[in-house]
Design brief:
Layout: H1 6-9, E1 33-34, E2 43-45, E3 48-49, H2 54-61, H3 65-79, H4 87-107
Antiparallel strand pairs: 1-2, 2-3
Length: 126
Amino acid sequence: MTNRTETERHSSLPAGGPGTPDEDDEVVVGPLRLRALRHAGPFWDGEGHLSDDVDVLRAWLGASRGLIEDALAWARAYQDLADDPGPAWRRRHWDQQQVLLRRLADEVSPGIEVEPALDEPPATPW
């Protein structure tokens, strides 16, 4: 996946800059996924990394500032690790991801598909 600038990512944004879509502009996002990666995140779709800017994400997704900030904090918790945190930490982090996915599904703008939350972690270790 390629990490693009916000202008490259959604060329449908108006000349006024990211985070200021006009009523007629349609930004296509989806399916929305949450990823905790060392280099970027947490908001991704099939085309790559969306943004880490709260205001841009609010405009694109329609989600609350609190939810976006919680997801950014979730990703930073992983990015800030110096070593492998162990299975208990990874499970708690995975559980938090599922809560965030459920909140996203409830909050994002109509028409944006969100990766479904799971009840149990995958059989393959993270």
